[in-house]
Design goal:
Elements: H1 3-12, H2 15-20, E1 23-28, E2 31-37, H3 51-67, E3 71-82, E4 91-101, E5 105-114, E6 117-132
Antiparallel strand pairs: 1-2, 2-4, 3-6, 4-5, 5-6
Length: 135
């Protein structure tokens, strides 16, 4: 399966990413670019985007980038730094980049941007199983 086929199959079954309104902008082996718009129901009590929203976008980007090689992979360690506040209507983009790929583990950095400004940085480690993606 190609990276695009894998991501499309994953997204078909990922109702949470669908609820977020994620659009797949680009995908290739080890990388993924996703976008979404912050909606009113994603705001916290301060009327800014809940931190879980950027985390979730980055987590989806990690999943898609790490599975794009054809081996089913799951996250085992993740962290995020929130740098800027996001408001309703803001369009954000997650850019996932593979830092290192080993037999059993993959290491990724995901940068979340609003326009050209970095709003969050996410790091993730995935476990790479032996199970392959199939059509």
């Amino acid at each position: 399966m190609t990276a695009n086929e894998i991501v499309n199959k994953m997204l078909q079954n990922d109702t949470f990413s669908q609820w977020l309104g994620i659009t797949v902008e680009n995908v290739a082996e080890g990388t993924c670019i996703l976008s979404m718009v912050i909606r009113k129901e994603m705001l916290n009590g301060f009327s800014i985007a809940h931190g879980g929203i950027t985390y979730s976008l980055a987590d989806s980007a990690l999943a898609f980038a790490s599975n794009s090689h054809g081996r089913q992979s799951v996250s085992v360690d993740t962290s995020i730094n929130h740098i800027e506040v996001l408001k309703e209507g803001d369009k954000i983009v997650a850019v996932a980049q593979q830092d290192a790929l080993k037999n059993r583990f993959g290491f990724y950095t995901i940068e979340i941007k609003k326009e050209e400004k970095t709003v969050a940085l996410f790091k993730g480690t995935v476990y790479r199983s032996d199970k392959l993606w199939e059509l």
